[in-house]
Write a structure and sequence with these properties.
The chain is mainly α. The protein is built from eleven helices and no strands. The longest helix is centred in the C-terminal third of the chain and has 53 residues. It starts with a helix and ends with a helix.
């Protein structure tokens, strides 16, 4: 709830420079407030391990959003305000569905009542490194489309075309990122550190095996898929899909290690690992991209994913080893 007024102030500040449509600003602020509430509700469902209810809520929200967008596309009512209203309606649908399926907390443990400042202080103490790591994660792996745009527009288009297909893997990545932290914390609390180590090692092994199976398929089908979707419009997009998939695979390992770090409250390493990736991308990665174009961007982007994963694994390995 404390993020809602902060988000409204930020939107108003941006609106002064980006757009001056009062109705669009109002719709955006309301959308943001509902988004925060709906996301809080989703996290509450994950904490209760009511995954099916959270998934159904997301499905309803996505369906309403796609329906609203389709209406705007084919009705001729398209405008910035109407698009934001369609997103707002989807959030309302998601919030209402979540209230129906999950509800609100009905029991407060005696002595657990905390004021807003105490809640904020506790959250910052636990997750400040995670919040900071998300800021540097963007520079570590997401800045390359902007870098290559300054080199050549055709290469930038090919890079973005390949990444548009590869971003489908973010569905899996975000699913893991939503589920694993709560599950890792639950395992640690109820079964102890040995069980957490076993859970982490088995999850990492499954991701490794899945990648060993899936990546050769991507290599085999990458070019035909690009040809099917784009024809011959984007030369080199298949190479982006085939090789940056390695970086996406590495990011899956990072998600597991992040969850373990959250459970063990060792999140400073998450920030340091992503910061190392960001430093690489802003120096060596930028040089490779500006010098070698698409090829440089591909391999630098892979490194931008791999470096944080390797650093996190190195730091977390003592926590994952079997204790004698």
């Amino acid at each position: 709830a404390m993020l809602i007024p902060a988000g409204g102030v930020l939107c108003a500040a941006v609106a002064m420079f980006a757009f001056r449509d009062l109705w669009l600003l109002l719709a955006t602020v309301i959308y943001l407030a509902l988004y925060f509430l709906q996301e809080m509700q989703r996290r509450y469902a994950y904490t209760l391990f009511r995954i099916r209810e959270a998934s159904l809520t997301s499905l309803v929200m996505g369906g309403v959003q796609l329906g609203g967008m389709a209406v705007l596309m084919f009705s001729g009512w398209s405008s910035g305000t109407n698009w934001m209203l369609a997103l707002l309606l989807a959030q309302i649908a998601g919030l209402a569905t979540g209230l129906l399926l999950v509800g609100l907390p009905r029991k407060v443990v005696a002595g657990s009542e905390m004021g807003a400042i105490e809640v904020l202080s506790a959250q910052l103490s636990h997750s400040r490194w995670i919040v900071a790591s998300q800021l540097v994660f963007w520079a570590s792996s997401q800045a390359y489309p902007f870098m290559i745009a300054g080199v050549d527009t055709a290469q930038a288009a090919a890079f973005n075309a390949g990444m548009s297909i590869l971003n489908a893997a973010n569905v899996v990545r975000m699913t893991l990122a939503n589920y694993l932290p709560a599950h890792a914390g639950r395992v640690l609390a109820h079964e102890g550190a040995d069980a957490l180590r076993t859970f982490a090692r088995s999850t990492l092994l499954r991701i490794a095996l899945a990648g060993i199976v899936i990546w050769p398929v991507v290599l085999l089908l990458g070019r035909p898929l690009v040809e099917l979707l784009y024809g011959g419009k984007f030369v080199g997009a298949d190479k982006v899909l085939e090789w940056v998939a390695l970086g996406m695979w590495a990011s899956m390992f990072s998600v597991v290690l992040n969850a373990v770090a959250l459970a063990l409250d060792t999140t400073r390493n998450v920030f340091m690992s992503n910061a190392a990736g960001a430093l690489f991308s802003c120096t060596v990665g930028a040089y490779l991209t500006l010098t070698y174009g698409l090829v440089g961007a591909i391999w630098a982007n892979v490194a931008g994913y791999v470096i944080p994963a390797v650093m996190q694994a190195t730091h977390m390995w003592p926590h994952l080893k079997t204790r004698g």
